[in-house]
Amino acid sequence: MRYLFLLFGCLLLGSVVSAQVGITGFYNLNEARMVGENADPVNNELDYANGPEIALNYWFRLPKNRIEFQPTVYYARSGERYGWNEAGFQFKTNIYLFDLGTDCDCPTFGKQGPQLEKGFFLQLSPGVSRHWLSTAAENLSGKTAFTLGAGIGIDFGISNLITLTPIAALRYTATDFTDMIFLNRDGLEVSGIRGALTAYQLGIQATFRFDKKRY
């Protein structure tokens, strides 16, 4: 996963002079549970605190429609000092439902029409993530999981240089993220159980456009 971040960072720096890039800060409300055919339907919560997330993205779009793509890398943690860490990649796709058939100079920079019509989008974001647990003694080995995500947002064009975008989203681990062995009351290993993490996300994204000669 570290090499993915390094590669993405190099591509981002190499293209920044003629591209649109963004940075997003989220606060994640996390819900972690044991799920599966043998999971306890009542006592199934896992200890996983809320916490912040930072994400970096690159931007490109379809040439004739308002469908835009944001390959994104992110890092999130739970708790203040010790807790779960998550680093991952998401391929975010923004679909502008009320402006799908236009070919505007987007994202919604400057004054380009009604804000809701031009700026509102639905976001879909499949991805992959790496999870590990930090304790006072050590970093415990983690596991790689596939993720599914969705959200909504609206662009507010501040100028030709910058757009601010409030976003509400969620991300769900479609596979186990804990790499834990689950035991029953007799201390025996129980199969058919995995850890599932749902992050309810509130954040704001700043998108910068460096291919404009005048801002």
UniProtKB/TrEMBL annotation:
InterPro entries documented for this protein: Autotransporte_beta_dom_sf
Signal peptide: 1-19
Keywords: Signal
Protein's UniProt name: Outer membrane protein with beta-barrel domain
Annotated organism of origin: Neolewinella xylanilytica
